[in-house]
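hey can u check if this looks right to u? its 504 residues, i copy pasted from the old doc so theres a chance i mangled smth
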Amino acid sequence: MEEEVKLNQFSVREKQTQCILRMLGLNNPVDAEGYWKDVWKILIFDAHCRDILTVLLKVSDLRKSGVTLHMMLSSPRQPIPDVPAIYFVMPTKENVKRICEDCNNQLYDQIHLNFASSISRPLLEEIATATLESDTVSRIAKVYDQYTNFISLDDDLFILNQTDSYIAFHDPSVTDDAAIKNIEDTVDALFSVIITMGVVPVIRCPKGDAAEMIARGLDQKLREHLSNPQNLLSESSSSFHRPLLVLLDRNLDLSVMLAHAWTYQALVHDIFKMNLNRVQLELIEKNVPVKRSFDLGNNDFFWRDHSGTNFPQVAVEIESMMADYKAKLQNAPSESDFDPSEEDPDAVLKKTKDIGQYVSAIPKLQLKQKLLDMHTRIAMQLLNIIKDRGLDTYCSLEESIMSKTLSNKEVLSAITTNKGSAEDKLRLFLIYFLSNPQKLQADELKQCLSVLEEAGCNMKPFYYLQSIKVFNENWAANVQPIGSKTSSIPVSYTHLTLPTKRIV
C-alpha cells in the first residue's frame, strides 16, 4: 500500500489534475472547506488550455467544481453579472487583448486570471494599463501563474503539444528567431512540468545538439526561480532524493518512429491517429457509414490494464471479459426466485439481499458492458486493417531486422511481394537502412529504391535519413569521449546539476 502511494506521488496526471481542481476552486486547496464549493462559476479558456482540460476532466467533473458554463475565449459572449469568471489561457498578446476587451465591456463582475505558464511583465502591465483606463481594476480578483503548460495523457506520459516539433528543430530552413522560440517554448513547458511535480531534477543530456540547448535553458530558468526566496520549489531543492531528467534528441533512435508496433496502444495510435486520448472510427451502422469518437484514458479500466499488451492477447482478454459479463447476467437473481410465502425467514432474507446487491451492481455492469463493446469495435477494426495490410508480417520482419537476421535479398523480396500500403513498405526499408551497419551495395540500393518508387512511395524521407546517417557517422568518428583516446562513440555527457541548497 505504501509503494502504491509513493507511485501516485509521481503521477504527472494526478498532480496536474490537482492543480486544475485547485484553480476551479478559486485557488483554494482542493480539500478545503469554504464557500467556493457552492459558488457557481464560469470557465473561459483558449484552444491550448482546452486541450489540457480535455484529457483531465469531463463535463461532470466541471459541474462538481461549480462550473456551470464553459466557453472559448475567442467566442462571442454576453455579460453575466454576479458570477465569478475563471480565465484559463496562455499568456499571449492576443489573449491579453481579448481579456482587456472583456474588462472594458464589463462582461463579468469578478475575474480570476489563470495563465498556463508565467506571464511576462510587459503583458501584465498591458492588463494593468487597460483596466486603469476602463476603470475596471476592481473586477480583476486574482492573477495566477498555474504552470500547467503541458498535456498529461497518462500517469507517466505527457506531451508538450507542439505541432511538427521534429521539423521545427531539424528543418535547415528554420530562421534563427524561430529556432530560439522553439527552444524557449520547450523550456517553458518542461519548467511547468517540474513546478507541477514539485521536484528539482538532476538534468542530463548529450553534447552538441538541441537537447543541450534546452537543458542549459532549463537549468538557467530553474536557477533564477530558486534564487527567489518565495520560489515554489523551496522544499524539494534541499532534498537528496531527486529524480533524473534525461533530454535526448529524436535523431538518436529514428527507427522507433518508423516501426510497426504490436501493442494495443501503439496500434491504435498508429492506425487511427489517436489524438488527446480520443480515437475516431468509421463504422457501418444499419448499412449507413457513420463516424464515432471514443475516449481512451485513465478512467477506462480495460485501456489502463491492457494498453501495453500485445494485440492477440487483447482480443483474448476482451472475449474472456465478455463471457464473464454474460455469465453474471445469466446468474442474476430473477423475480421467480423470490417467493414471499416461503416460511424460512433466513432464505427470504438471503434472496432479498442477493437481489439488492445485484441491483446496486447494475450501473457498474452497464459501464463495463459499454467499455467492452467499445473495445470490441476497436479491436475488430484493427483486426481487419491488420489482415488487409499484413501488419503482423511487417512486425515480424522488423524484429528480424533488429536481430540482424534479415538479408538484403529478403528485404527486397518483402517490399516487392508483401501486402501493405506504400508507407508500410517505405517504413520497413527505412528501418533496415538505419539498422544495417553494413551499407547496401549500390546496385541493391538502386533496386530497392526502384521498387519503392513503383509502389508509389515518396522518397524524400529516405534522402533525409541518408544525410542524417552520414552526418552521425562522421560526428561519431570525430568526437572522443571524456577519458578515452581510442573509442569513436560519442558518450560524453553534459552534467547540469542544480545546487542541493536554495540559492539566496
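The first helix runs from residue 2 to 9.
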